[in-house]
Design goal:
Strand order of the largest sheet: 4-6-7-9-8
CATH architecture of the largest domain: Up-down Bundle
Strand content: 5-15%
Number of strands: 9
Order of helices and strands: HHHHHEEHHHHHHHHHEHHEEHEEHEE
CATH topology of the largest domain: Rhopdopsin 7-helix transmembrane proteins
Shape: elongated
Helix content: 55-70%
Number of helices: 18
């Protein structure tokens, strides 16, 4: 019965220590707690061997020496915990050296047997006679224990009204309970010659350890929420530990027990030991290979895939994702985070490319605008003189051939004048006259102007205007020019009986205007160049290539955007977006 209790105590201590340590292995409080639990586990192993297997040759003197040393090391771990919890601060090295320095003398004294005058264990009865140095050693152990309790109590006073204070209070009660039970079983009763509870001292610490663990885990140990959290995030360390434990237990039951029975059924002789060693080595290969496969499945293969994916991303294949089965451990979270990072990186790079293209186009527009105003001014002056001379010549009596030639020259001058006017409109810097106005009103005004064109009148106009959209603060003249350019471009792209659809709506803090036609559409290769100055898909003499560049400049000055898409060779759609809260005044 005692061996079962000791084994239960040992497994519980190991499980609790492992649970707390893996929960946050970098936190010093968890590290020192794990050290404290480790010393308790050593104490339990020592008692398990000594009290349950007295014929193993484990001398009672060494059992007593181990008890003295482990008891002191437990107090060292307790004081370290009190120093670092809850702030996760470092252990004060100078104070620790001063406090722990007596151990340099006391521990060797224990090892060389200076603490015991006599110790005897025979017929299940233990008798001990301590030296005076033993009482000094015990006093030092309790002094370190008291100092640890003093540190915890001071911190409890500081954090008393918080959850951390509740944790400190519970830990303090756990330490005092453990200390009381250990003192009763190991000091008080043996002092009066009663050693009956001494074999159970390792078991008496369990209530205090459970309270200790419950407190340091933020009072979540064995709670339903903790179980759900652990199911949601099942760390790799837990998986490896459980796998190793499961393989060890199963291989012990399946292989080791039958091998021991078979090898030693005729007695413990040389041949029996030879059989046992040879077949134990052979049987150990199976669980070891199984563990290797488990490690490869849990660690190696997923990490290899993540590594290959990261190499592809560094090579420029942004958006590459790791193809892994979703798991609830650190590797699963790493793969999921990597995929999210890769997708976001690809999206951000596409956005940067778009912004870069817009920036290049804006810089080009600025440069062209500066040059165009000067060029147009220089060209217009001589053109005006030439036009006047032609008009004077046309007022005279001329033959038919000369009059036709002068008419052709006048038309070409008018064409040049239109180009220079577009250049001056494109490059002119004039103050913005913005006011709050309905975008539908501007659209309707632009349509009335466009209908003065005889070709535009033949189009079928479909208006889907949302009357509930809010007003915007824009320059109405500039936006009228913008819509007029879009309408006339649509006229040039469709046949005589074509359809022009105009739609307005709002959403996401913006007003949207769609201008769609059912013409021939825009080639995909031209979509990125459509807003560049002097780029046109019209025949020579039918367009200057500045209309859409002017539109782009107008909408950019209003903090908006303009986009175009081709409707699969069945026309084009221009989308204009204007912020509802556009600021008054020009840029």
């Amino acid at each position: 019965m005692l061996v079962i209790l000791h084994l239960f105590s040992l497994f519980l201590l190991v499980a609790l220590g492992f649970y707390v340590f893996v929960a946050n292995p970098r936190m010093r409080a968890h590290q020192t707690f794990a050290a404290f639990i480790s010393f308790l586990a050593l104490w339990t192993v020592k008692d398990l061997i000594f009290w349950n297997f007295p014929d193993t040759g484990f001398h009672p003197g060494w059992w007593a020496a181990a008890s003295f040393i482990i008891a002191l090391l437990m107090q060292f771990a307790l004081v370290n915990f009190a120093w670092v919890f809850p702030e996760n601060s470092r252990t004060p090295k100078r104070r620790a050296a001063m406090l722990f320095s007596p151990a340099i003398v006391l521990i060797p004294a224990v090892i060389f047997g200076f603490l015991l005058k006599r110790i005897d264990y025979s017929n299940g009865a233990l008798s001990i006679d301590f030296s005076p140095l033993a009482y000094l050693y015990v006093a030092y152990v309790y002094m370190v224990f008291g100092f640890g309790c003093y540190l915890l109590f001071n911190k409890y006073l500081i954090y008393r009204s918080t959850q951390t204070g509740q944790q400190l209070g519970a830990i303090l009660w756990a330490v005092l309970l453990t200390g009381l039970l250990k003192t009763l079983a190991n000091i008080v009763l043996p002092f009066f010659g009663n050693y009956e509870l001494l074999p159970f001292s390792a078991i008496f610490v369990l209530p205090g350890v459970l309270i200790y663990t419950y407190a340091i885990s933020n009072f979540k140990l064995f709670s339903l929420q903790t179980a759900l959290d652990q199911f949601r995030l099942f760390p790799v360390a837990y998986k490896i530990a459980l796998s190793i434990a499961a393989v060890a237990i199963v291989s012990f039951v399946i292989f080791q027990i039958p091998i021991v029975y078979w090898a030693f059924q005729d007695g413990m002789n040389f041949e029996a030991w030879r059989k046992y060693l040879v077949f134990s080595v052979i049987s150990a290969l199976v669980p070891n290979l199984l563990l290797v496969l488990i490690v490869i499945r849990i660690f190696s293969r997923p990490l290899q895939r993540i590594t290959l994916a990261s190499i592809q991303v560094t090579s420029g294949n942004y958006g590459t994702e790791v193809d892994l089965r979703k798991t609830n451990d650190e590797i699963g979270l790493l793969a999921e985070s990597f995929n999210e990072m890769s997708r976001k990186m690809a999206f951000d790079i596409d956005q940067l490319k778009t912004l870069n293209e817009q920036l290049i186009r804006t810089e080009k527009l600025a440069a062209i605008g500066t040059l165009s105003a000067g060029v147009a001014h220089e060209v217009n002056n001589p053109l005006a003189s030439i036009s006047s001379l032609i008009q004077m010549m046309q007022s005279r009596e001329l033959d038919f051939d000369t009059r036709e030639k002068l008419k052709l020259i006048s038309e070409q001058i008018s064409r040049i004048t239109r180009v220079t006017k577009d250049l001056m409109d494109f490059g002119r810097s004039r103050p913005s006259a913005r006011s709050r106005i309905s975008i539908n009103k501007i659209v309707n005004a632009s349509l009335r102007l466009a209908k003065f064109d005889s070709s535009f009148k033949k189009l079928k106009i479909v208006k889907i205007l949302d009357e509930g959209i809010p007003d915007v603060v824009v320059d109405s003249d500039q936006f009228q020019q913008l819509f007029l350019n879009l309408f006339l471009n649509a006229r040039d792209a469709v046949s005589a009986d074509g359809v022009l659809t105009i739609k307005t709506y709002s959403g996401g803090g913006e007003i949207f205007i769609e201008v769609s036609d059912d013409g021939s559409g825009i080639p995909k290769a031209d979509l990125k160049k459509i807003f560049d100055p002097f780029f046109t898909t019209k025949r020579t003499g039918e367009g200057t290539g500045l209309g859409l560049a002017v539109c782009y400049g107008i909408i950019a000055a209003h903090d908006g955007r303009i986009e175009v898409r081709s409707n699969n060779s069945h026309g084009s759609t221009f989308l204009v977006a204007v912020p509802c809260d556009a600021k008054k005044g020009g840029k």
